[in-house]
Amino acid sequence: MIDFNLYLITDRKISGNCLAAVEEALRGGVRAVQLREKDLKVRELLHMAYQMRELTERYGARLFINDRVDVAIAVEADGVHLGQNSIPPWAVKRIAGELLIGVSTHSLEEAIEAERGGADFITFGPVFYTPSKAGYGAPLGRDMLKKVSSTISIPVFAIGGIKPEDIKGIRDSGARGVAVISGILGARDIREATEKYLRSLI
């Protein structure tokens, strides 16, 4: 069910025009996008989600909505991505069992709990330092990533300061793929940056 290894997470504060930036990444080959714009009011988010759904469908890509199960259902997204304070995965399955469920985790215990709760995949990090994840504590490193990947059976996506040259070590640690924000959206050439990540993931 998880048929991608590069997971793009939006941040319009980095990219500016969010839709245009995501389209460049889709042209570069991204096939999974998480709409994560937490500061938007729900109607603004819903409007953007409809636009993002139309865009991702045009490129045959999956769309995940951060946290808002109601918005995901309304726009017929492929899934939701949940945080540690979100509605739990098992409850999402009762509401909308067709949605794929990703969960953000920052420890082995959270990763285990996400799998037990019904998550289809997790993001784990920050593996390396990155400003967007600085609030989650010190970088966890590849050793902890390897421990998590070998303990749970669902796909693990490493997140946090990951550059294309890091990917071999990330994959050697057992991760299915990587989740990226600024490495793509902050690039001068978004399409080229996307292609570089995808080449490293082959």
Which descriptors would you attach to this protein?
single chain, 202 residues, alpha/beta, TIM Barrel, 8-stranded parallel beta barrel, 8 strands, 17% strand, globular
Summarize the structure in words.
This protein has about 200 residues and is an alpha/beta fold. Helix content is about 45%, strand content about 15%. It has one domain: Aldolase class I (TIM Barrel), CATH 3.20.20.70. The chain is built from ten helices and eight strands. The chain has an eight-stranded parallel barrel with strand order 1-2-3-4-5-6-7-8, surrounded by four helices. Helix 4 (about 70-75) links the parallel strand 3 (about 60-65) and strand 4. The two termini are about 20 Å apart. The mean pLDDT is about 95.
What would you say about this model in short?
The chain has 202 residues and is an alpha/beta fold.
Q: What is the fold's blueprint, element by element?
A:
Layout: E1 6-9, H1 12-15, H2 18-28, E2 32-35, H3 42-58, E3 62-66, H4 69-74, E4 79-82, H5 89-95, E5 100-105, H6 108-117, E6 121-124, H7 141-151, E7 156-159, H8 167-172, E8 177-180, H9 182-185, H10 190-201
Parallel strand pairs: 1-2, 1-8, 2-3, 3-4, 4-5, 5-6, 6-7, 7-8
